[in-house]
Amino acid sequence: MRLFVAIGIPERIRERLWTASAGLGVPGMSLVPKNSYHITLRFFGVADRRKRDSIINAVALAGGGGFVVRLHGLAYFGPEPLVLFAKISQGNERIAGVRRQIDEALGPGLSGGDEVRYRQHVTVARAKRCDEDVLLSAMARYSARDFGSFTASSVSLYESIALEGRYIHKELFAQAL
Fold it and tell me: Packing angle between helix 132-139 and helix 11-24, nearest 10 degrees?
């Protein structure tokens, strides 16, 4: 099973993100299904039941109370694959703190070690190839859009399941913050 820990995004925010990403109309861009939007704290990849249980135990130790997360603007990194994402303008320090709590509970052997590549965001679309000039032009109207805020009140362990060329996410465990 492929596992990751994430903070879910409420429906009203997912709808705003979906409308913006669907409105870009960039050839070659594949939209992430709106029910899959989340803020990944740690991706573990393929894990057995023992590792899954260790991750659940670590997530169960996360806490500190809920906090406000604000999503503001679209940006991208890439180039191949290119990832279009919503930026987090409020809540970054608390998200990083929850991530640290989980990593410390797991210890260095299980925490994943992707610190250099990690950037807090919500992926809304991907492209193996697309014209960056077309993308930049289309994104201009959304680069400063406020998609709203929500209270992150829990963190969850998900299984990522490949289904017909896409991934669906099944929540395995949730921990109130």
Answer: 130
